[in-house]
Write a sequence for this structure.
């Protein structure tokens, strides 16, 4: 399968994937995971249509596989690929946070309203 | 007899207390027909709102995880029943803005419905998969109907629950590719009928007359339709292979069909994995149109008069709303009410629409005739907006 063939390329050590996201991006990522991933996995990440993403639920699952799932999705399930929306190093940062207990949402970034808003 | 004297005295005291209550009502007198609730998802709180003055009246806290909450109303429109993501079912008194009753009925829930006669609440559950019925007065459990399937009796996640005439409920089994109808007219003895459907139904709607049940499919292009007046004919596939040969796009938020859009004898339905609203004629089930829209539609909702259909979109294009003209079947307006538009709710006769902008912590109110902004209300991370007029509609 094409996707399976590409997976090994994604399987690299989590800590060797570039710098951690800056504070602003971390805040965005936390908000995205809580609010948007939360539409399937629950705001508290206890699960919904998608499985729970709590440290207990993820225990024993290799980080590399979790990063690959975020980036590439899970074909045949509703889990979509986030490639293009999130960098691999950012996905690795998210996975590390999930495994240790995900931070609370600090809210969205301050509004950058477009001129066309009405 | 001394006993009867005591009784009479007690009765007198009770009557005095009652009359004292009657002369000093605990809340100002008001009707409930223009009330509603806004779900503040991050804080597990409801705002009780009034549509006539476009204002918040009160807040009610302590409702648990409301990240995917849905709400139905008692038939006297006094109580809102809130189904939380964490399985909480809370009965909120809109007049006193207090919790009248609360149970945690499951581990992981996704919404509910209320029976035709207003006496039975039904919750649809992911974990454990199935539906449960509750007395709308006491929230006492009346029936537990597991969505078991296959030889080893696995339980499916339940989606697309809707009420039907006759205290029946129709719902879909995401994992089992089935539509089921459970008759709760005798809640102690629920009777369930099963109909094979297309692959992975993700949500569904029932038409306002309670006749047609249409389930969207995640596992294939097309929708499953059950004519409940001729259920013996089983499920029919409609709009089969509407995206044949095209690669479906990633779906960042499952579309919702339950904010149904039936207008002018047609159903307006969100395509899954495509930037399209599909239009199908009820009855003949012919495809009338596919309307290209800005992104992946989530809610496709008809204005109550059916003259327009309003659409919002999945992450990451969720700052937009588009309006479809139902005669021309094209887009007539594109709005940017704010960031992360999660839900829309029309005033009962459709002159205004309330739109929740989660990431801007506000609800924006538009007039629908000119699509002009009329007001904004602050709300913490608002998601669903529900007005009491839902109490009188099948499928809400």
């Amino acid at each position: 399968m094409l996707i399976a063939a590409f997976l090994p390329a994604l399987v690299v050590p989590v800590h060797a994937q570039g710098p951690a996201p800056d504070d602003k991006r971390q805040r965005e990522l936390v908000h995205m995971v809580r609010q948007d991933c939360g539409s399937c996995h629950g705001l508290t990440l206890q699960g919904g249509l998608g499985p729970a993403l709590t440290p207990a639920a993820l225990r024993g699952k290799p980080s590399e596989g979790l990063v690959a799932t975020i980036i590439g999705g899970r074909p045949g399930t509703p889990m979509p690929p986030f490639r293009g929306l999130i960098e691999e190093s950012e996905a690795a940062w998210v996975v590390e946070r999930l495994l240790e207990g995900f931070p609370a949402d600090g809210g969205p970034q301050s509004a950058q309203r477009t001129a066309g808003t009405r | 007899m001394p006993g009867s004297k005591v009784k009479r005295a007690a009765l007198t005291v009770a009557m005095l207390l009652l009359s004292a209550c009657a002369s000093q009502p605990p809340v100002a007198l008001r009707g409930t027909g223009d009330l509603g609730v806004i779900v503040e998802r991050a804080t597990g709180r409801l705002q009780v709102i009034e549509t006539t003055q476009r204002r918040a009246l009160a807040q009610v806290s302590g409702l648990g995880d409301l990240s995917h909450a849905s709400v139905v109303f008692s038939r006297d429109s006094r109580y809102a029943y809130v189904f939380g993501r964490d399985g909480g079912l809370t009965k909120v008194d809109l007049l006193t803005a207090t919790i009248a009753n609360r149970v945690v009925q499951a581990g992981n829930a996704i919404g509910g419905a209320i029976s035709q006669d207003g006496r039975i609440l039904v919750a649809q559950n992911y974990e454990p998969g199935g539906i449960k019925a509750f007395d709308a007065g006491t929230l006492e459990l009346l029936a537990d109907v597991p969505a078991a399937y296959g030889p080893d009796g696995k339980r499916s996640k339940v989606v697309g629950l809707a009420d039907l005439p006759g205290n029946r409920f129709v719902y879909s089994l995401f994992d089992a590719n089935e539509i089921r109808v459970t008759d709760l007219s005798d809640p102690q003895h629920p009777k369930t009928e099963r109909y094979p459907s297309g692959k992975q139904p993700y949500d569904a709607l029932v038409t306002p007359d309670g006749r047609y049940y249409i389930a969207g499919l995640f596992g294939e292009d097309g929708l499953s339709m059950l004519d409940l007046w001729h259920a013996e004919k089983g499920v029919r596939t409609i709009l089969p292979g509407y995206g044949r040969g095209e690669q479906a796009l990633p779906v960042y938020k499952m579309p919702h069909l339950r904010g149904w859009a039936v207008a002018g004898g047609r159903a307006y339905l969100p395509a899954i994995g495509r930037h399209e609203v599909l239009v199908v004629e009820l009855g003949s089930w012919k495809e009338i149109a596919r309307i290209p829209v800005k992104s992946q539609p989530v809610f496709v909702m008809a204005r109550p008069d059916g003259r327009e259909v309003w659409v919002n979109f999945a992450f990451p294009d969720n700052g937009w709303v588009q309006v479809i003209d139902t005669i021309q079947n094209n887009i007539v307006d594109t709005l940017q009410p704010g960031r992360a538009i999660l839900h829309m709710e029309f005033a009962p006769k459709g002159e205004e629409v309330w739109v929740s902008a989660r990431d801007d912590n506000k609800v924006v109110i538009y007039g629908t005739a000119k699509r002009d902004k009329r007001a904004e209300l602050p709300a913490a991370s608002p998601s669903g907006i529900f007005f009491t007029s839902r109490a009188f509609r099948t499928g809400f």
